[in-house]
Amino acid sequence: MRTDDDADETLMLRYQHGDAGAFARLYERHKGPLYRYLLRQCGQPTVAEELFQDSWLKLIAARASYTVQARFATWLYRIAHNRLVDHYRASARGLPVSYADDCPEWTDIPAPDAVQPENQEERRRQSERLLALLAELPEAQREALLLKEEAGLSLEAIAQATGTGRETVKSRLRYALARLRQGLGGTS
Amino acid sequence: MNDDRHDELHDETIAELYRQTRAVGPPSWLDQRVLKAAESAVEPRPASRLKARKSRWMVPLALAATVVLTTGVLRMADEAGEFRGLSSPEPARSKVEAAGAASADIGNTRLLQDQRVRSSLPEAASPAAVLSAEVPASAPAAASPAARLEGAISRSARQEASDSARQEASDAALSKTAPAKPAAAPPQAPAAEAKKPDRLEKAAPAEPQARRERLDRSPEQWLKDIAELRRQGRMAEADERLAEFRRRYPDYPLGALEAAPR
């Protein structure tokens, strides 16, 4: 449980006043979800790294104008979303279909201790299948699902971060889950 | 967090499967790059602050220097007579005239300050134009307009019996030049011109103060003085002043003076 002193917004305000250590804590907290969000969306680690770095640099540059009007994560993912849209426009939305080929590190995913060896292989295959299905989703639906699962944003926060309406986000999420359930074939 | 009110939007199996894929993250070099950028953005940089302070003064300083330099150059050019040709109503003056005017401007400033010379020409005529009216355009450059003016003055000085030979010579020269260049200016033009600052006058301190003051007077005041002289019975002096006035303001109405007793 985070205290008020440890909240994202408090850390960002501290960084705004020159506390680089507060930024380091923020970065440590959000770097993984943000990176995965970008990686899933663009499909290429090199592009994801570029977008990831640009997003954080934009945040650093905009630190002076930061005000606590919404969750920090909403602000961060709003910046990342805008950068991603710029990337789509520049590259004519040339996303690769097969995500697993671009991410060999996924084969090294550690399995939970409770998983039995015979189930471990099955789980790994299902995760790979899930990632493949995720990569095949339309970008907007995939983005909504990633912001929910990775960043833990609510419907309202997703709507704010992506600049869409709440009902639109609901529709996208519902459609994405239906596609994934169908693709996994009875795993749900 | 996940919205509990929308369970139909949450699939725990899919979420569990997805959580197993979270091992991937940004490479360490990217972590270091971002953290370094964040640190350098907030760390104090006294050198750059000093530079910023300097650059803050650069623009106003440059503007002030520009204004000072421009003003100085303009004043110097104005005093050197660079702009006199621009104010002339006759744009197509020959170079010979301009050169003659320049040399006369320097060498014969005492004559130039006589405002009657200017009054015999159209309004706003520059000193250069005044002198060029005396000097033909085809005159050789060696015979400067100043020399010609001096000659005219010396010739007419012999005809006048007045207080100062130099002053009267100048008057006589004007009496010859005035008919050649009939004044087309309205009666108020000489008065307006008389009020203009004349740098040439400043350059001629030897001119008698009384005469300069008399020349600088308005036509109305001039006529009043003539009337006063007549009232005092100093008729010769009054007539002399009147003749001088007529040369200077040939078209000025003398109604008030005519009414005065002779």
Quick summary:
The complex is a heterodimer of chains A (188) and B (262). With 188 residues, chain A is mainly alpha-helical.
Describe this structure in words.
The complex is a heterodimer of chains A (188) and B (262). Chain A is an all-alpha fold and 188 residues long. Chain A has a single domain, classed as RNA polymerase sigma factor, region 2, helix turn helix motif (Rna Polymerase Sigma Factor, Chain: A, Orthogonal Bundle), CATH 1.10.1740. Helices cover 70% and strands 0% of the residues of chain A. Chain A has nine helices and no strands. Chain A has helices at 8-16, 20-42, 45-61, 72-91, 99-102, 117-136, 139-149, 155-162, 166-184. By secondary structure, chain B is an all-alpha fold. Chain B has a domain at 93-195 and 207-259. Chain B is 64% helix and 0% strand. Chain B is built from 15 helices and no strands. Chain B has helices at residues 12-19, 28-42, 46-79, 95-107, 109-112, 115-119, 127-134, 145-157, 165-180, 188-194, 199-202, 209-216, 219-231, 235-248, 255-259. In chain B, helix 4 crosses helix 7 and helix 8 (145-157) crosses helix 9. The relative contact order of chain B is 0.07.
